[in-house]
């Protein structure tokens, strides 16, 4: 039952309305029902507050009382939804004007267990939309909210009031997220190692002309290639053997010793190393790697509007460690060793390796999602560039739609989880040994992330989160029967 509270302010003392209780708080509401309230559906609450701000509610027409009592209802103030039982003793006493809190219960629509179960795990969902390349990506946060926040910061800066920053926005670490960062990095290593082993068992093909990927013994027959000269090939794909980068799309970012330090310019871009964005996010969240040192602050950063007024000075970046152990660690956090032809033995137990890899993939996505709620990650609204830090870099490397108008600069906006770890959806086939998907039966097939599809074909159990998009309950008809399906 949802509880709506109403505050009656400026009530005259009348025995027909409320008899105040003699307690330490003189304005505490009494639990005695009155004739005025007995005509309504509610009862008197045990606490009140004058800090609520609401709209005046005129209820005189619905109560059959005297004119004096009806005029009292005009002073009732509607309180935003807050359970009356949540009001503590400090809120029970009014600061200025005496008043009482009344609450009445309104029934909520009840949903059956079947409906709630369907909301958690729907039967089928639409396939992920393909965003047009000639338009900017939609903003994760509505633009009017971003503009409103910018206006507030500008007004505070004009008044000379510093911007209030919470960790990690002020350069300090969040202690609760340090274990999450370490767990995410370890799962990232397991994910790369597991995929490298599974690709020796599960074949993966990629189109030479477009980003299309297919997990199966041969490429599919769906004619949807968008690469160059696709008209001459009638949109047929040119399949070649895929690699781990076709399954786990590499998204790299610049490593920064001090995210609040000097901004990366186009002329100084070669002074910074490029590492996976997941690894850079974990480093800024508290992971210590001798190969990639990071500045840990003890004094918070101070900002006035968009200007940093105190960053604790600039510290010279130490030289990274380049020992043999360091290079071995670099091969674990990147797909460099897999692509350089290093021999990888097949897994002893393919099913267990698939289950372990799929669990690591879920852990990485959940960990990155938790870190991105606190730590700022920027993404270009036109291309796939990602930057981990409070603001984007100034390297002019964007070659997407109308980059000439922007002089190659990126259009930075808040990043999403799918931009840091792209799911790379591929067609799902129930029988990997059966015929490849064809264009005539395209609407009967489902999709799944490439990592999930590789693990499922290797023997892992299908997670419940990906079942609706895989469309497992749809029976794929024969080519002749497809015309008869409504």
Automatic annotation (TrEMBL):
Domain of life: Eukaryota
GO MF annotation: an example: RNA binding
Entry coiled-coil feature ranges: none
Ranges of compositional bias, category Basic and acidic residues: 108-123
Record Pfam families: APO_RNA-bind
Biased composition (Low complexity): 15-24
UniProt-listed InterPro entries: APO_dom
Region annotated Disordered, chain positions: 15-47, 104-131
Domain APO: 206-291, 379-464
Stated name of the protein: APO domain-containing protein
Originating organism: Dendrobium chrysotoxum (Orchid)
